[in-house]
Amino acid sequence: MRLTKKDLLGIQDLSVDEINLILDTAESFIEVSTREIKKVPTLRGKTIINLFMEPSTRTRTSFEIAGKRLGADTVNISATTSSVVKGETLIDMARNLEAMNPDVIVIRHNASGAPHMLAKLVKQSIINAGDGAHEHPTQALLDMMTIKARKGRIAGLRVAIIGDIAHSRVARSNIYGLTRMGAQVTVAGPATMLPRQIEQMGVTVHQHLEEAIKGVDIIMMLRIQTEREQQNIFPSLREYSRCFCLNRENIRLAKDDALVMHPGPINRGVEIAPDIADGPASVILEQVTNGVAVRMALLYLLTGGKS
Amino acid sequence: MRLLLRGGRIIDPSQHIDEKMDLLIENGKIVKVAKNIYKAKTAAEDTASSTLKILDLRGKVVAPGLIDMHTHLREPGFEYKETIQTGSAAAAAGGFTAVACMPNTDPVNDSRSVTEFIISQAVENKLIHVYPVAAISRKSEGTTLSEFWDLKDAGAVAFSDDGKPVMNSALMRRALEYASSLNMTVISHCEDLHLSTGGVMNESFVSTELGLQGIPSMAEEVMVSRDILIAEFTGTPVHIAHVSTMGSVRLIRDAKARGVRVTAETAPHYFTLTDEAVRKFDVNAKVNPPLRGIEDVTALKEGLRDGTIDVIATDHAPQAVTDKELEFDYAASGIIGLETALGLGLKLVSSGVLSLEELIQKMSTHPARILKIPGGTLKTGSAADITVIDLEHRWTVDRDQFKSRSRNSPFHGWDIKGKAMMTIVGGDVKYQEL
């Protein structure tokens, strides 16, 4: 089976079969990263541009390593070193990059829909590495891969996503993916962090951490963005952590074998207590490891590879 | 030279006329509206001696010239988006014989010199009537009143800080009071900036899915409510611009029932599209106030039907490609409407929301009445500002055919039935497709 799409813009556009294809392919790439010589020639001669208009360590490095392990040439562009500082528009920049004939453009952008705009414009495959508060499809795929690896399935699991749902692309992509794969998803945060009519996305909604994590298989904590304090989304970090920090007491409400996930970077002691982040339930670093495999799979599938 | 419009269906909401008649224009004025004004023989003689021109308008509608009370002509300052000339040409092509242009130019129209400049440009263009709307506050900054009296003398027909709300309620009160002494109307752009800041579309399930920051309907309604309270307390009139929400319709309806002197307009995009149009991040569907939900569209139609909303205005807001071809968050807001408004308005007639007479009332008679400007009538003795409409003419919106300098329309490619085929201003044909 092949991925017939030109681009990966969001989980919303993916079918169950496509998600399974990506996850299975990713599974087969895990092994490459454990070899002594971590490189295969699969994408030799291909060029991948990582266009990161927003700060990122994990995702950018992950894409770069994924490309390199497949033998592709990878080029990184960040907002501060790009011609954006000279006033060039995203569209002009994309047209110029297109003219250099890359095979894939990976884009991270703070404006929702930016990858969609590029996908309409250029002939290359576009991979959305996170757009505004819209989608972060590779994060959701690596999360699903991690869940599947640990639990053997996604269907029927209960997943709680906790934090600033309104401003989270991770939450949206995971809601699309997990509900499509048959999980039951609950979201929770103070009302200021719950976007309008979120329940229409097929999730149950709670306003307290304790209610949301009761009996769940997976707890997904979201990073709290400190700049939201100025917008009165929450009064203070102190108060937020008092009510929404996952710690050794409240985690007992979840199933005994519940997994704790976080897309990173974590604010230790704010949304997650250090001993939980580092504890036995945490799969945070496995998520990062799986991220490389998922991105290898996507680069492979979008450049015409088949499972 | 006389011009005879023969055999058309004359619709004049100002006299409640809807009848097949002839209309005779002489020296730029309507001199007679009656059946069979000329006997065939006399007419033939007069046309032969070229003292009379006859237009056969059988099957067409002859209406008072359309008036758009909410247009952005962008000049002075933003001539790359639109000029008074290109905007006037677009207006004429859309069947408008007059437009009122908003003051958010550069410099802002808060002075006699800018008002006079706009009028002089329009006079030079010899296309349509252009009526400047002057700023409520200096530079539209919302702190001190502009010189209403001087602006009125210069030719301004109303006051508005359109594009920006007047956030200071005390200033809005003084604006309404001061304008009422001059028998002038204040047009309010209702938006609570604290509620709307950062928003780029309607706050709804669609904004939730797209991860775009929403502008809640209450950002408009809080201010509609405030302006109604000010108008009620002071007994002065206020006109609410570009109504987009169900709640605003309800507030205005209730206020009118209490006798508050409030009038209101909406624009074709608000009763035609919903926020679903934003789904594919289409920047041409980005507009302020934003496209709302289906319940709002339904309420706007009901408000148009029951008379709560007096006027259909375009809020024609030209934006150049360079303003629009950006990430959705950064793209400029605005939809151009002069060349599509009548066609979209006629959809309300074909779907039974409005009668044709009511549509013309909302696009001609009412704007003239609210702005206290000439037009909106076919009464004998009035200026011959006339729009000829073909209700059956089918056409496809093609942004490359627009007379406007800008192309920002979400209606590109739409099939529309009904079009202005001739626009007559002061007895002269300014646009013709017949």
Please summarize what this structure is:
The complex is a heterodimer of chains A (307) and B (434). Chain A is of the alpha/beta class and 307 residues long.
Descriptive overview:
The complex is a heterodimer of chains A (307) and B (434). In chain A, strands 7-6-5-8-9 form a five-stranded parallel sheet. A four-stranded parallel sheet of chain A has the order 2-1-3-4, sandwiched between helices. The radius of gyration of chain A is 19 Å and the shape is globular. Chain A is α/β, with parallel strands linked by helices and 307 residues long. Chain A has ten helices and nine strands. The model of chain A has no long low-confidence stretch (mean pLDDT 95). The longest helix of chain A has 19 residues, at 284-302. In chain A, helix 5 (137-151) packs across helix 10. By secondary structure, chain B is α/β, with parallel strands linked by helices. In chain B, the strands form three sheets. In chain B, strands 1, 2, 3, 4, 5, 16, 17 and 18 form an eight-stranded mixed sheet that branches. Chain B has helices spanning 40-48, 84-93, 112-125, 148-154, 169-181, 193-196, 205-210, 217-234, 246-258, 268-272, 294-305, 321-324, 341-350, 356-371; strands at 2-12, 17-26, 29-34, 52-56, 61-64, 66-71, 96-101, 129-134, 158-159, 185-188, 201-202, 214-215, 238-240, 262-266, 311-312, 386-396, 415-425, 428-432.
- What are the segments of chain B in which pLDDT stays under 50 over at least 5 consecutive residues? none
Describe the strand arrangement of the main beta sheet of chain A, using strand numbers: 7-6-5-8-9
Mean pLDDT of chain A: 95
Shape of chain B: globular
Specify the helix fraction band of chain A. Answer: 25-40%
Radius of gyration of chain B: 21 Å
Furnish the topology, listing elements before pairings.
The complex is a heterodimer of chains A (307) and B (434).
Chain A: H1 16-29, E1 47-52, H2 58-69, E2 73-78, H3 90-99, E3 104-109, H4 114-121, E4 125-131, H5 137-151, E5 158-162, H6 169-180, E6 184-188, E7 204-206, H7 209-213, E8 218-221, H8 237-244, E9 259-261, H9 274-277, H10 284-302
Parallel strand pairs in A: 1-2, 1-3, 3-4, 5-6, 5-8, 6-7, 8-9
Chain B: E1 2-12, E2 17-26, E3 29-34, H1 40-48, E4 52-56, E5 61-64, E6 66-71, H2 84-93, E7 96-101, H3 112-125, E8 129-134, H4 148-154, E9 158-159, H5 169-181, E10 185-188, H6 193-196, E11 201-202, H7 205-210, E12 214-215, H8 217-234, E13 238-240, H9 246-258, E14 262-266, H10 268-272, H11 294-305, E15 311-312, H12 321-324, H13 341-350, H14 356-371, E16 386-396, E17 415-425, E18 428-432
Parallel strand pairs in B: 1-4, 1-5, 6-7, 7-8, 8-9, 9-10, 10-13, 11-12, 13-14, 14-15
Antiparallel strand pairs in B: 1-2, 2-3, 5-16, 16-17, 17-18
